[in-house]
Amino acid sequence: MLSAYITLIVILIFLALVAQRKPEVSHKEILSQAVDNTLPLLIRIPAAILAGSFLAELIPKDYIVALLGEASGVTGIILASLLGGALPGGPMIAFPLLLAMFKAGMGTPQLIALLTGWLLLAFHRIFAYELPMLGTEFVRRRLIVCLPLPLIAGFAAQALGQWL
Fold first, then answer.
1. Distance of CA 12 to the CA centre of its chain
2. Cα angle: 26, vertex 30, 31; to 5 degrees
3. pLDDT by residue (tens digit) across 38-69?
């Protein structure tokens, strides 16, 4: 976590130095935009983490372990991939739920498949945005390409776990 933070700080310093050389860039305006974008997150992130913590205590651990635990194998990876595609909302909803399921005993390969399914499939986004705006031919091609990817990610994570 510290290395990611340090990397972001280095990138920020580099970008600020590059922006400093351009006279049309206002650091004051950039700082104002950053504060405007950050303030809503200061409320959402703690609330989401707290909700995820409560959810972790409410989810029946035996149920999660049986369906999506490490021992669920191929069936768990397939189920997690489909569940990921059906998981609605953005990261403020999905990540606390994923954290709760992981704390309840979800296996790492299954979690990777679920997260990949959420990122790539997102059935709610298909119906709300992609079909109306991009059409059925695009959605068909994208789904053909993307459907196997959560499974591949889950199986690769499972194989890597056995290898390590």
1. 23
2. 115
3. 888 788 778 877 777 777 677 788 888 888 98
Q: Any idea which residue has 């005993």 for tokens?
A: 105
d(CA 10, CA 16): 10
Both structure tokens of 47: 């609330």
pLDDT at 47 (0 to 100)? 80
Q: How far apart are CA 73 and CA 158, in angstroms?
A: 8
Cβ-based neighbours of 92, under 8 Å, separated by 6 or more: 44, 45, 48
Burial 134-145 (b: 16+ CB within 10 A, else e): eeeeebeeeeee
Specify the pTM: 0.73
Q: Supply the pLDDT for residue 133.
A: 94
- State the 10-residue block means of pLDDT for the chain, 164 residues long: 82 83 78 82 78 74 86 93 88 82 90 95 90 94 95 95 80
Amino acid at 131: L
Distance of alpha carbon 95 from its chain centroid, rounded? 6
The distance from CA 111 to its chain's CA centroid, rounded to whole angstroms, is 10
Task: Check if the beta carbon of residue 83 is closer than 8 Å to that of residue 128.
Answer: no
